[in-house]
Specification:
single chain; 202 residues; Nucleotidyltransferase, domain 5; 6-stranded mixed β-sheet; 7 helices
Amino acid sequence: MAITLHRGDLPDGLSFGDIVAVDSETMGLDPHRDRLCLVQLSSGDGDAHLVQFGHTFDAPNLVKLLADPAVTKLFHYGRFDIAMFYQHLGVLTEPVYCTKIASKLTRTYTDRHGLRDLCRELLGVEISKQQQTSDWGAPLLTDEQLAYAASDVLHLHRLKTIFDGLIDREGRRDIADAAFRFLPTRAKLDLLGWDTEEIYAH
């Protein structure tokens, strides 16, 4: 496994194929208050590319990738990351696939849909969440932080393959695809203030 850290943007000419796993690390969970610190990406080849941000967000190569209609962006709980990217990078990320939504649509026998749970049950892989709440705004990230950040994208392609089979097995392909298409709009609703209110409720 190779972890490559980039400052401010992806380099020119870097390709991730037609499906790229994406995640982010931030200073907190409020997109209006907390800044984007790190974006992690992987093509599923076992390597990860990490883009670190300070207080400026001029990243044309990353923005182009996130908006590329020919590249599916693969997330776990993409709702948060998509909102952060829209808020800080000014890009609406699509098309997308979310393993957390896929899990909720297929693993209805459990309420454990975290990435750690999925990796353990479906892949037999243990991932550590010890660095999750560390200071991602630090100018120099530790090796432990970089390894943790990379682990959040290195397994998503394998999980997608498994979930594609489960979605088809359960006859939920149409609803899954519709849920994935709606996810960027759900993120925009969050940013507009409808993050807790169910707009479809009576």
